[in-house]
Amino acid sequence: MKGLGLIIHRELSLALRQTGDSVVIVLFFVLAAVLFPFGIGPEPNILARMAPGTVWVTALLAAMLSFERLFAPDYDDGSLEQLSLAPIPLELTVLGKAIAHWLTTGMPLLVAAPVIAVMFGMPEQGYGALIASMALGTPVLSLIGTVGAALTLGARRGGVLLALLVLPLVIPVLIFGTAAIDAAIGGFAIGAHLSLLGGMLLAALVLCPWAAAAALRQALE
Fold first, then answer.
1. Tens-place pLDDT, residues 182-216
2. Which domain covers residue 102, as residue numbers?
3. pTM of the prediction?
4. Sign of torsion, CA 212 214 216 218?
5. How far is CA 125 from CA 94, 118, 183, in A?
6. How many CB atoms lie within 10 A of CB 145?
7. Number of domains comprising the chain
8. Hey, what long-range contacts does 86-90 have (CB within 8 A, 24 or more apart)?
9. Burial of 160 (0-12, 13-18, 19+ CB in 10 A)
C-alpha cells in the first residue's frame, strides 16, 4: 500500500505541473455536449431524452484524450524502465497510474456531468443515477485505458490503434450507465444496472493491471 501511495503521489505531482491537460479534457467534454443541440435542434423534449446518452458518450470521448499519455512520457524519458525495475510490482504501478488518471480526469468529468445534464433539461429524478453510474463507470474507463495505452505503447499512430482497442471494451459501461439513468427517470429500479457497473469495476480492478503490466513488459523488451 505504501508503494501504491508513492505511485499515486508521483502521478498527481506530475499532473499538477500540467493542469492544462485536465482543463482541456473538461472543456472538450462541455463543448462536445454543446454541439448536440446544434445538430438535432433545440426541442426540449428531445434534448432531455438524449441527455443520459449524450453525457456518457461525451465523457467517454473526453477521457480517451488522455489515455495515450498514461505511459508514453515515462516510456520516452526512460522512467518506465526504472519503474519496472523497482521493488514495487509493475501491476501495482499500473493500478496507481489508473487511480491517478481517474482523480485528474474521471473526477472532473463526474463533477461537470450534472452541469451538462442541466443544460439538456434532464429530469431531476435522473441526477442521483447519473452521479452513481459515473462514479462506478469512469474508474472502469481509466482501468481499460491503461490496457489500451500499454498495448499501443511505442506504436506508430498509437492514438488511432488505442481508440480501436478501447472503444469496443467500454461499450458495456456506456450501455449500463445510460440505462441506469433512463431507468431512474422512468421510475424503475436502478440497482441491477449499478450492480453490473460495480461488477465491471471489480473485474477491471483485477484484470486490467495484470493485462497492462504484461503488455508493458513486452514493450520494454
1. 999 998 999 999 999 999 999 999 999 999 999 88
2. 2-220
3. 0.90
4. negative
5. 37, 12, 9
6. 29
7. 1
8. 86/3, 87/3, 88/3, 88/4, 88/6, 88/7, 89/3, 89/213, 90/213, 90/216, 90/217
9. exposed
